[in-house]
Specification:
The protein has ten helices and no strands. It is globular. The longest helix has 21 residues, at 151-171. α1 runs parallel beside α5, α3 packs antiparallel against α4 (51-70) and α5 runs antiparallel to α6 (119-129). The protein is mostly helical.
Length: 222
């Protein structure tokens, strides 16, 4: 089990890199957690520092999940290793690496265990594991966001769409998804975790006090 422990530690450290905090500090000399919604994530950076800086943070946060899933998961690991029953499912190794990176983003070691909500890092992880489901979820996110202008609502809808899409592909469209019986439960778990980390957003949405990004500079050129 030592290789898995090493993979988990490295994934947590990579996930813990507080991209939003570093970028906000270097650009404006501020702690992003003391501005906007108080969240150390790309969405809050968009609100406080603009969409270009926020997009950069989101891409970096996604890269953390993708790196853990596609690179760190393959370090010092040989399948199968001795266990009862024999462990021979690389999908599980990728899931462990990606999940730990996401937890590192949410509870970052380098910023008092107060990080972001994990949606971007989870997205990067899922791109490495299930790119088709991620593409569908991203499309749903964009549609919901462009209609409602609520990033949180788009994120919540996309999180729900992910396991539903996987279930439909495997059981309705009869696509043979590698590691499906592992991935479906994992995808449900990720969806529930994202909903949990957005619980304050859900409350604000229900009260009608959630922050909206009304103006999208990319689509409002003069």
């Amino acid at each position: 089990m030592i290789p898995i422990t090493i993979i988990a530690i490295l994934s947590y450290l990579v996930g813990s890199i507080p991209t939003a905090i570093i970028v906000a500090k270097s650009r404006k000399g501020i702690d992003i957690r003391q501005h906007g919604s108080g969240n150390a994530g790309g969405t809050n950076v968009i609100r406080v520092l603009g969409w270009k800086t926020g997009a950069f943070v989101i891409v970096c946060d996604m890269a953390k999940g993708l790196f853990a899933t596609m690179v760190i998961s393959q370090l010092l690991f040989v399948l199968p290793f001795a266990s009862n029953p024999p462990f021979n499912d690389f999908t599980v190794v990728q899931i462990i690496a990606g999940c730990v990176a996401m937890l590192g983003h949410i509870w970052t070691l380098f910023a008092g265990f107060k990080g972001g909500k994990g949606i971007a890092t989870a997205g990067g992880m899922l791109i490495g594991i299930a790119p088709v489901e991620v593409s569908v979820s991203l499309g749903v996110f964009m549609i919901v966001f462009l209609i409602s202008h609520y990033v949180s609502l788009g994120s919540l809808t996309a999180a729900t769409t992910f396991p539903v899409t996987m279930f439909l592909r495997e059981n309705v469209f009869m696509v043979d998804i590698q590691g499906y019986h592992t991935l479906i439960w994992f995808s449900i778990g990720v969806s529930l975790l994202i909903i949990y980390t957005h619980r304050s957003n859900v409350q604000r949405l229900l009260r009608g006090t959630e922050n909206r990004i009304v103006r999208i500079p990319l689509f409002n050129r003069r």
